[in-house]
Amino acid sequence: MTDDDGRARRALVIAAHPDDADFGAAGTAALWSREGWEFYYLVCTDGSKGTDNLEVSPFELIRIRREEQREAARVAGVKEVFFLDNEDGELQYTRDFLGQVVRHIRMLKPDAVFTHDPTTLFHREQFINHPDHRCTGLVTVDAVYPTARDHLNFPTHAAEGLETHKVLELYCWGSNEPNFDVDISEVLDVKFDALLSHRSQFGQREDFVKFATERWKDEEGRVLERFRRVTLFR
Ligand SMILES: [Zn+2]
Q1: Which of 73, 97, 115, 154 has a Cα-to-Cα distance from 17 of 20 to 30 A?
Q2: Would you say residue 86 has pLDDT above 80?
Q3: What is the CA(16)–ligand 1 centre distance, in A?
Q4: 61: buried, middle or exposed (CB in 10 Å: 19+, 13-18, 0-12)?
């Protein structure tokens, strides 16, 4: 899948924690990569609070989760993972964080950006959306438009050789208003393998696969990754 210049179409998945990108979009990444897309992940926090194990130090956990995320990305066909290493659980909407995300958009020039739906506070009346997810989603939306597009935002990027960039499509997972489905049934095993690469986060494979399959399958036996898609007016 290439654009008008013959360049492979590119997607950047921007997630709060190690494993969020795989929950949200590993199936789509695997499927579209087979069609010629190039996928990249950007993980915004260091994942240092994601454990109930009292024995492991935050420093050790950061190292472990980074390796797990690289392995998961490799399984899903993602070309590279970038880490911002902001502190887990303490993400704030700051000019600095916005600049970090804009820098990666300008560097990678994705056609499509995937992220958390920042408008979701409660999901399916069952979950409170984690504040790091909401913050990452909102910063990403603002980075896509207008910040990465306009050269007077973060003008120092030009000195680093980075050009402004227009993203064409935004896909948000965890949305209460999905309008675009990707049927990932044929790559479901790949998604499981990617998720289960996060060994510090999951128990037994059989238990997780059984639990997730029951929850994720629709009436027709398909598994969908559902997004709210925004096609940006050019
Ligand atoms: Zn998360």
Answers
A1: 154
A2: yes
A3: 6
A4: buried
